[in-house]
Amino acid sequence: MSELNAFLHTDLKPISPSPLDSLELARGNRSLEGMKVAIKDNIAVADWPLTAGSKILDGYISPYDATVITKLKRAGATLIGKTNLDEFAMGSSTETSAFGPALNPWDNTRVPGGSSGGSAAAVAAGLCDVALGSDTAGSIRQPAAFCGVTGLKPTYGSVSRYGLVALASSFDVIGAMAYKAEDVERVFAAMSGQDEFDQTTFSYKYKPEGVKVDGLKIGLPRELWELEIDPEIKKATQELVKFFVDRGAKISDVSLPSLPLALPAYYVILPAEASANLARFDGIRYKHSEPTETLLERYTKTRSVGFGAEVKRRILLGTFALSVGHYDAYYQQAVNVQRKIEQEHQEVFEKVDVLISPTTPSLPFKIGEKIDDPIEMYKSDLLTVGANLAGVPAISLPVGFSKSGLPIGAQIIAKRGSDNVVLDLAKIFQAETEHHNRRPEPSNHQ
Length: 446
Ligand code: GLN
What we know:
It comes from Candidatus Berkelbacteria bacterium RIFCSPLOWO2_01_FULL_50_28. By secondary structure, the chain is an alpha/beta fold.
């Protein structure tokens, strides 16, 4: 479809709706009729390939629809293809994809972010109206920021994970990306809600509420603003804050003292959960399988050949952190930190309505710049990971451009269940500003 490598599969079997889907479509409100939606390739669509960006699933065809896909189909959306991602959503640049990186439509020498980089690039280049992503530590918000689009990481449990290839089940959530917050909202409204196939979902019905900016209490989390952040990003985010202050919002400095521990805690819990979730890829149940003499050889060879370096690194880290003698020192400690962060968010939202911070510490970086330095890559999540540990909703929206013409995103975070608040604030900002209306040069992506 383009040079961007944003899509892994476009030449797909046409979707034939099940009789129940057709009935529901006929009965339904068709809220997504005419909308072209791209799907991150870690979300199952019946009869379409599902690779999760990994060689180990190359050639695998999903036998069923994820719950979000069933809901999108029943609302009349047109699904147009599966987008590129970091392998099993581990990464911040799409460079760990077994199928090569996606490129940033604003500058083809730079990454689109990750792990939902293909989705963000597809939206930015105008190849679809909306794209689904998944966010475990920032994988929707960071690529949205890098590609100049709006991306929502919903409240944990408000959207079903059934049919999402699991990374860390306690943080994973499916969300949408589009240029306009309004389109993100339409898709979120259609796909959220309790699901009998995912016991972590709760009864949630999205309602826009008409949030008022006059009197809104905005907290600026000290621990995030004090990080080393590109000055142009800081300035553009301050302008977002000023926009609300000019319209009657009140700002205050707030503190979430455990936030500096969020990233280290995440990089213990995530590998622990991921190593358990990835155990199912054994060369028997899924596609890729190496011919060997014994069963044990089959397991080891399939996994050695099928998984890339980042995935192997995390399986090693995770099994180590969970092993006898290390469990208390690493995993249990990290879970304690997570609980503390969750609690500090609950407390801060008794004082303020929303938190605002930049989405990323840096502008979109060059392809190849960070891929050989995992710690540098992990730091891409510094500003976004807290919302995942706390399970709260967060939106990244375009707030400007660098002098070099690269997009800048800022993040609005609210308490659990207040997805409507972050969406409303993004819509209010976008109704009066133009950042989300700027497009990359078509020559960059044709
Ligand atoms: N950078 C994070 C990681 O590699 C992103 C994960 C995610 O949100 N899917 O784990």
